[in-house]
Design a protein that fits this description.
The chain is globular and about 40 Å long. The chain has one domain. It has 1 helix and 9 strands. It has about 150 residues and is mainly β.
């Protein structure tokens, strides 16, 4: 599993991959009040923002879920725990967003041109409209925030 170790400012942006060099770090500035939000990037579609804390984050493509590590033991079977959490109650709706194509998860407040490859997660999202839902996973070996994309 590939992890981003955190952000300087606590906010991530799921930026269209082709736009990363032009991302100047101010695009999401007004939308960062909510933990999960979206912005319209003219000519490039919608951008998902995830924030609140400078936590390590990973993306699990099989469940289309972003996982933020609040604190955990490395021996935890995270894939299995996230899979079990998919059917658990307590998921909260955040936003609906249109996504599709290649993206890079980057620090939302840092210019893309200044972001080295090791400080971004590259991922593909099938084209569609998604509901972003969040949940909190508490396990004896760790705690995680989960943010999943569900097709609508």
């Amino acid at each position: 599993m590939n992890w981003l170790d955190g952000t300087d400012f606590g906010y991530y942006a799921l930026c269209p991959a082709g736009y990363v060099p032009d991302w100047d770090g101010t695009e999401a500035h007004t939308e960062l009040e909510a933990y999960i939000n979206k912005i319209l990037l003219p000519g490039h579609g919608e951008v998902l923002t995830i924030g609140g804390e400078a936590l390590p984050v990973a993306y699990l493509p099989e469940s289309m879920t972003f996982v933020q590590n609040v604190g955990s033991d490395e021996s935890i079977d995270l894939h299995g725990e996230v899979e079990r959490a998919m059917t658990a109650p307590g998921w909260q709706d955040a936003v609906e967003i249109v996504l599709g194509g290649q993206y890079a998860l980057i620090d939302a407040l840092v210019p893309g041109a200044d972001t080295e490859e090791e400080y971004m997660l590259r991922l593909d999202v099938p084209h569609g409209r998604y509901r972003v839902q969040s949940s909190y996973l508490e396990h004896p070996l760790g705690e995680f925030y989960l943010h999943r994309l569900q097709a609508v």
